[in-house]
Amino acid sequence: MTPLRLAPDHARRFMRRALLLDAPVPDVAAALAHHGYIQIDPLNICGRMHDLILRNRVAGYREGDLMRHLHGDAAPKPAAARTAFEHHHPEANILVAFGHEAWPHLLGAMRRRTHRSGPWSGRLSAKQKALAEKLLAEIAARGPLSAEDFDDHGRARQVWGAASLVKATLQKLFFHGRLLIARRGTGNRRYYDLPERILPASLLAQPEPPRRATARWCAELKLRQRRLCTLKRTELPLVADLVQPVAVDGCPPLYCLQADLPALELAASDLPRPAPAPLLLAPLDPLIYDRRVTASLWNFAYTWEAYTPPAQRVRGHYSLPLLAGTELVGHVDPKADRAAGRLRVTGRAVKRGYASAAAVAALARWLGLK
Hints:
alpha+beta, four-stranded antiparallel β-sheet, three-stranded mixed β-sheet
């Protein structure tokens, strides 16, 4: 198929619109259906990653609304009331919120993990196997439980905070699909329950699709998540019937979904409008997730540095890119001081002619801080 040529400004305008930054949707369910998944991260420096992603995309979004959508508020939702769940992307291995349609495509990755070595998500050790049956029986009898609800059964190799044997075993049972997250408690604590109490029986009964079908689903999911992106050589043949090649000067070959062509053509034909209010984006926002596209299309070199050693950081611990119209014009590194009720800016760098104060004030209001 012949690539559709786009000016860089038109491509950026399309990305804004297609990624819901110009017209927020009414609720979390609509955003999740549009993007395919929302990435989850536990760090809460100035709001959690998933909340920062959704606050710019869902009208009236409040901190914690994604978790309330997934799990309910005061008490866990029954399976019949749930439409989404938490699990790991089968290829990227990031924790995300998925709609129910994702479940069958996760089964292959779950099964393969039970045969692989590894302290984080791999097969259970002999000690973990013995403990797993006790944990599953307790959860079956008592309902959702966290690692802290069980007696100390010893230590495990520490991986991403799973230092106790109980926590490591629960984590692996989650990776293997034998437990799911029923709710989140204080400090983002996970409470696990049996899959049949989280997902409907009809969904759990669906068979594992062929591996190629899941690979096609993953490639389409990437396009839904980013709307204009690069595709690997292995991905393109899987979705060739779904995509439109796009050529933008200075950029690698890009692709969008054919279903997005009306929005892309509108972006190319629309007259420039007054720039909307600047926005602070999440560090892993879909607009900037692909660093190669961010650098070539947006002329913005950005790396999330939360897990980078302090001495090696360039922008700051949790810097948020600043989007002004169709330009990324700098970053702000904010930190929520909840005890003092203030949002403190520990660093910023913004192009001359642009200001970040209004975007910082909007973030502070959303957090309920000064």
